[in-house]
């Protein structure tokens, strides 16, 4: 998988998490996941079209999701993921992907994104036929890990 397609996700995540939530990240070891794979119990899914097509899945455990939502909501305690907390997390995914699209555009590549979908539950499993999934673990300064699972192919029609 071409690194030029992975780096924009890392760059955008680092920028948005710092600017929006004051969260610093350190990059974990990037690896390829085999399908099907199980995810954490909070995921944000954003579709991708354009130069590449596929999806980005932001995966975090509930405790980390609550920490992130709390920081985004000016420190208000978040013990459960109510609709306001879910909205904040969805918007975070949307902002990261919007910034990713801007980074791609700066490199002469065009992508569009779909509105985010947030799912919660135990043992969430993803099966992606014919797509390689690259997992980017981000260690968060608030504690916990956010994994960004990128599954896409180059769009030869574009």
UniProtKB/TrEMBL annotation:
The lineage of its organism: Bacteria, Bacillati, Bacillota, Clostridia, Eubacteriales. Keywords: Chemotaxis. It holds the Pfam family CheX. InterPro entries: CheC-like_sf, CheX-like, CheX-like_dom. It comes from Anaerobacterium chartisolvens. Residues 42-137 form the Chemotaxis phosphatase CheX-like domain. GO terms for biological process: chemotaxis. PANTHER family: CHEY-P PHOSPHATASE CHEX (PTHR39452). SUPFAM superfamilies: CheC-like. The keyword Kinase does not apply. Signal peptide: none annotated. This is Chemotaxis protein CheX.
